[in-house]
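Progress narrative, work stream C.
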Amino acid sequence: MPVVMMIGAGIDYGRIAAARGSLQQAADAAVLAVAKGIVSSTTDQQARSRAQVYLATNYRNATATVTSATIATDRLSLCISAQAQVSTTIMHIAGQASMSTQVTSCAALQGGISPNDTYEISLVLDNSGSMTRSTGGTTKIQALQSAATSFVGTMFTKAPGRVKFSIAPFAGGVVAVDPTVSTNRSLSWIDLAGANSQHWIAFSNGELTSDGKVDAVKAKADANAAGFTNRFDIFDKLKAQNSSLDWRGCFEEPTYPYNVQDLTISSANAETLFVPYLAPDEPDSSNNYGNSYLDDNDAIYSGWGGGGWGGGWGGGWGGWGGGGSSSSSACSDTASTEWGMLTHICKYKTANSISGSFGPTSFFGPNQFCPDNSTQTVLQLTSTQTTINSKISQLTANGNTNLHAGFMWGWRTISPVGPFAQAKAYSASGNHKVIVFMTDGFNNWGVQKRTIVGSDYESLGYYTYNGIANGRLPDGRSGDGVNYQSSLMAAAGSSSSYLSTSRGAEDELTLEACANAKAAGIEIFTIGFSIPSDPIDDQGLTLLKNCATNKDHYFAATDAASLNLAFSTIGTGLGSLRLTQ
């Protein structure tokens, strides 16, 4: 009998050892899961309760209990202890029906990293008009300001002297530099010679090559002959007529694929230089255009009779009926087509502005979709907390949504190359490059039906240029494989809306940019601020999920409290989560 009991005890102890291994695995999973959600207000009791839920899910033993949970005083580690009763078989005969097993598991909280590590964090924050809408008695922009300020405070507390922030507010565009600083008009990365292929495409004086494409060489020559070396010269003419028409600090995006890459600036390659944003004056005599801010009749030919389009929409592009030149014309040549009227460079020589509001809330004029530079200018990397908080407090909601431009300018602020080139090298040891990308909406590039361009003029330009491809759009060689350059050419003159197609193009650019940033080693957190009364659709949420580093880096916020929780969780979560015991 004693021999039998000894053999039985061995069997039972083997079962206990196996059970203990399973309990340890369950406890490890529980401590990691709970550690991800630890915030400044989390108590030990709350951590224990959450761990109990995870333990019960992963360990099928009704007696399994988390007996304690302890968050370290520096809030950088969490330990839990768990125990369970394991039923015996042979030893049950001797009166011992069960045996107890105990385990302990500890995790370094996300953010519990080396005290020598540094952070470069870009806050890419949606400032579009929908951020004025209310959630629980506060506007979304106010909720963002509160959450972002708390996040900044968390990081400065956790990594004093080792954290820098940049802020890239975005709406329909991004104010990259302060236009009131005169030297910001002569930066080395700006296309001051007007040599970039996109510089004169919407100011091309109707110049076309024999195969129907914009003749960039002739367009540049015409601009130079009219007295314009670059777009700042046009702004000077506009400002002379109306001080509200001065450049507001936005730039247009480079051609594809430069506009989804961490671009190294080279004066030898004009395509790497940035073109100042200038929305063209659109023809006066078509109700289909929304941005006519110059008097075309005076600026091009004062004798024009206003006869309208010669051929009508159905029969192709006719000339301007009743048009003609006069001795009082501001230019020696005239425009006889819609394309010519739109792109006529000489109308900017006299720049006779018509009456209207040209402020940042009007979406009218040469800065049509460039936000207010007094509140929404990019803040470059800084370690001064008061400067960061001040910028957050100034954020103003207005305009539509351009996720691609916002993301790219955020990335550029933490890049060691590109326009700012202030950040550490990607290979710098112990340095963490992070983008926190928050939006309450999705890409929205406005339509202008029955025009030869198909759309509003944003940082990517028009959908098409008189049926000519937009070289800033994806060409199908990567990503989703769709040639959006070709797809949006059909928008010229169409009565159909290409809003879905243009959104697809901007989404593709955004996702390619996210993928390239992740490949460069940048950690990306995304937050969809989707309140019930103003939700982000499934396509928009999917984009944010796919942009993030992984599923744990994506957050959905439905009110001010959950937005604050998202930022708080990110603040706690920067760094690597790992078991320590």
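Work stream C, second folded protein:
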Amino acid sequence: TALLSLVSHELRTPLTAIKASIAGLIELSRQDASKVQQEFLQGINQEIDFLNGLVDNLLDMSKVEAGTLAPHREWHLLEDLVEGAIRRLEMSLKNRSLQVSLGEKISPIFVDGMEIQQVLINLLDNAIKYSPPGSLVSIVGRTTPNQVEVSVSSEGEGIPQEELLSIFNRFYRLKGPRTRLIRGTGLGLAICKGMVEAHGG
């Protein structure tokens, strides 16, 4: 776990520098680069985003495994955290129909905003990746006597009953030919579980 955390930290600095350089090149390319060159730059940019996401997941997973997740709780509006997650995935959501229903009586929640927003991002990212283009992705929030519940759903194929107990295991990915075509690490739901449990959920 310590090695995983160290390697992830070491990767973050060069990736940040590369990301900044590519952003500058993309800006310059709008003036004098060909369409093909612009597409190559956008492709590189997307790969860097994937690697940054992978590093973030590895760092989060190392904290979950080490038991060092210590939520820094503050009062947040659930609406703000959901909106932040949606902004992060704005490009991926362009070919999905998004429906958000949070209700009117959800009180502020006492949570680590960054961690809970990351949970929402991971769930929303899964809902997008495992559903067909043009389909509906829904985020629903509701209150119960002791907590706030948030569900993220899509019109994808769903999870087979026999795999439900395994989906929160690290590096676990759903079986099947279609899943092999979907990029991912199998860490997202394991991280969600760790962060939610750190909040007492």
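Residues 84 and 90 are 10 Å apart (CA to CA). No further action is required on this item.
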